[in-house]
Amino acid sequence: MKSPEIPVSSAQKDNSLGDSYLKFRLNSQTLAVLSIKQTQEGIVVPVEAITSIPNMPDSVLGLMNWRSRILWVVDLSVMLNLESFNPRLRQYNVIIIKVESVLLGLVVQEITGTTKFRQNQICSPVGQVASSLVPYLQGCIIQQEEITLVLDAQAIVQSSVLGID
């Protein structure tokens, strides 16, 4: 059974609106984006597609086969010490990111689409969000009193919190 895919190919070449980002919800309260440049694909997979591995940190859900490659899958909200979403799901929304040669699957509550932001719209997260989030952020975007986290894929992949190599 083929799972539904959310395409994240490079949209238009017009950069006047800014850089492209994949937009998603980490949980019911937290919006976030990741650069399209580091995003391979957004997919929906059944819970059974992820094989749990014993003695791993809570944030590591296990291993998954994606396009004949085995990759780690992480619950991003747990990794970032945010309130997790419903653990009794039948399927996961997984964002596949690539940093250099490392692939990692990030489970999020909902993938909502793509958006564009100019670099000057991204402000420092210090004082805006919990200090524990800051190492994983490039910054944040504040629009109409709503904060969107601009995640740093490299910091996520290299996090010691994951306990994976």
Descriptive report:
- The chain has helices at 76-79, 153-157, and strands at 5-6, 19-25, 31-35, 39-46, 50-51, 60-66, 69-75, 91-99, 102-108, 110-117, 137-143, 146-151.
- It is mostly beta strands.
- The strands form 2 sheets. A 7-stranded mixed sheet has the order 1-4-8-9-7-6-5.
- It is globular, with a radius of gyration of 15 Å.
- Residues 9-14 have low confidence and may be disordered.
Summarize the helices and strands and which ones pair or pack.
Blueprint: E1 5-6, E2 19-25, E3 31-35, E4 39-46, E5 50-51, E6 60-66, E7 69-75, H1 76-79, E8 91-99, E9 102-108, E10 110-117, E11 137-143, E12 146-151, H2 153-157
Parallel strand pairs: 3-12, 7-9
Antiparallel strand pairs: 1-4, 2-3, 2-10, 4-8, 5-6, 6-7, 8-9, 11-12
In percent, how much strand structure appears in the residues? over 45%
What do the pLDDT scores average to? 87
CATH superfamily of the domain at 5-10 and 17-117: CheA-289, Domain 4
H/I helix tally:
2
Instruction: State the helical fraction.
Output: under 10%
- Biggest β-sheet, characterized? 7 strands, mixed
Radius of gyration: 15 Å
| Number of E strands | 12
Supply the CATH class of the domain at 5-10 and 17-117. Mainly Beta
Please write the string of helix (H) and strand (E) elements: EEEEEEEHEEEEEH
Give the overall shape, derived from the CA principal axes.
globular
CATH topology of the domain at 5-10 and 17-117: OB fold (Dihydrolipoamide Acetyltransferase, E2P)
Just name the CATH architecture of the domain at 5-10 and 17-117. Answer: Beta Barrel
**Which strand order do you get reading across the main beta sheet?**
1-4-8-9-7-6-5
- Uncertain segments: 9-14
Q: Give the CA-CA distance, first to last residue.
A: 30 Å
* Structure class: mainly beta
